[in-house]
Design brief:
Blueprint lengths: L2 E2 L2 E2 H11 L4 E6 L3 H8 L8 E6 L9 H6 L8 E4 L4 E3 L1 H9 L4 E7 L7 E6 L2 E7 L8 E10 L2 H10 L5 H8 L5 E5 L4 E3 L5 H9 L6 E2 L2 E2 L4 E3 L2 E3 L4 E2 L4 E3 L2 E3 L4 E2 L4 E2 L3 E3 L4 E2 L4 E3 L2 E2 L4 E2 L4 E3 L2 E2 L4 E2 L4 E2 L2 E7 L2 E8 L1 E3 L4 E2 L4 E2 L3 E3 L4 E2 L4 E2 L8 E2 L1
Parallel strand pairs: 3-4, 7-11, 13-16, 14-17, 15-18, 16-19, 17-20, 18-21, 19-22, 20-23, 21-24, 22-25, 23-26, 24-27, 25-28, 26-29, 27-30, 28-33, 29-34, 33-36, 34-37, 35-38, 37-39
Antiparallel strand pairs: 1-2, 5-10, 6-12, 7-10, 8-9, 31-32
């Protein structure tokens, strides 16, 4: 349900399926399931039929195979499986449907294969999948999008019986005796693995942003490129917006604010005078007070930034899972409902948790855990 270009990631998957006339959809839900179910309801707004199965986690490390096992009684014949945290274009689903083979897996090329399961092939047949390899063995990766028959549940039961709960292990179990066909796609597929991935995926999604201006646009506002502004939003005089940019409903921007490309701003956001926001993702109900600078950053729902806040971007190296990952340009990553005083500055690449309180004139140069008070 994380917003990309002001829409939950899941919507992109639903639309990709609907565009290929795949309309009978079952969602496996669990954590914060209410937000998913209340948003999509029965799927009517997307011209699909959605039903829900509660995962009801019963094992210590329930993975993708365990989640899929929840729908065993609801599936007959052939079906498609896809993750809910990817941006997926209609062409990806079309590629999967158009190919032959009882069992199929969608693969694509990646510049960072060590983040994924790397697929080794013999022709178009899958011979091996190596999860997050430490050594380079290829650039073809699994997208986690599959076509299965209902016979897969027998393999899932067998693999889970040995204490493994992920679909990669199920595929590995099947490979010696079952043909699994790789379907290489050139369609849109983007994965949000780390928080900073949101910035790149958001920028890609905004490429299809269409200009649409609702609300009130005061005199003296300049807009260039595709800019989408929601109902009830006020853009005050002297503000300059360079698209692609999307701004949600009920916002108040300006006066004299600069918003630069690849920026998504959620609903009910306030941005004070003489502030600059560029290449960033701002969730709902955020307040950015006057004279602030936010670049290549992600701000969670309900964040409040005092006057003259600064989150500049730079090339950084992020430490994840005992591995260093270079990020070309990154500002700050701020969790929901964190409040900062005036003249706070944040070192590029810093993660600040949810519900933190940061005092005035503080320089944040290291990661901050949830619910921390920094004086």
């Amino acid at each position: 349900m994380i917003s990309i270009a002001n829409r939950p990631i899941l919507e992109y998957s639903i639309e990709a399926l609907a565009a290929n006339k795949v309309t009978d959809i079952t969602m496996v839900v669990g954590y914060k399931k209410e937000s998913i179910m209340s948003h999509f309801e029965d799927g009517g707004d997307w011209n699909v039929k959605i039903s829900y199965v509660d995962q009801k986690k019963r094992v210590a490390k329930a993975g993708t195979a365990y989640a899929l096992s929840m729908v065993k009684k609801h599936v007959k014949g052939d079906f498609i499986v896809l993750p809910g945290d990817n941006i997926i274009g209609p062409n990806v689903i079309a590629d999967l449907i158009d190919q032959t083979g009882k069992y199929r897996i969608v693969i694509t090329e990646s510049e960072e294969p060590s983040k994924y399961g790397v697929v080794e092939l013999s022709g178009k047949v899958v011979k091996n999948i190596v999860e997050k390899p430490t050594e380079h063995i290829g650039n073809l990766i699994s997208t986690g999008i599959y076509k299965f028959s209902d016979e897969i549940f027998k393999a899932i039961d067998t693999v889970m019986g040995s204490g493994k709960y992920d679909l990669t292990s199920v595929i590995q179990h099947m490979i010696p005796k079952t043909k699994v066909t790789a379907v290489k796609t050139g369609g849109v597929w983007n994965d949000v693995v780390y928080p900073w991935d949101m910035l790149e995926v958001n920028a890609i999604a905004l490429r299809k942003c269409a200009s649409q201006t609702s609300g009130r646009i005061d005199k003296g506002v300049t807009m260039k490129g595709p800019v989408n502004i929601g109902e009830g939003t006020i853009i005050r005089s002297g503000t300059h917006i360079m698209g692609p940019v999307i701004i949600g409903e009920g916002c108040e921007i300006g006066p004299s604010v600069c918003i630069y490309p690849s920026t998504s701003i959620g609903a009910n956001v306030r941005i004070g005078p003489f502030s600059v926001v560029e290449h960033s993702v701002l969730m709902d109900d955020i307040i950015i007070n006057s004279g602030s600078y936010v670049s290549h950053s992600v701000l969670g729902e309900g964040v409040e930034l005092g006057p003259q806040f600064c989150a500049a971007e730079d090339a950084v190296v992020m430490r994840t899972e005992d591995e260093n990952r270079p990020v070309e340009r990154l500002g700050a990553l701020v969790g929901e409902k964190t409040v900062m005083g005036s003249q706070v500055s944040v070192r590029p690449g810093t993660l600040i948790g949810a519900r933190c309180r940061i005092a005035h004139q503080t320089r944040i140069d290291r990661d901050v855990e949830d619910k921390t008070i920094v004086m």
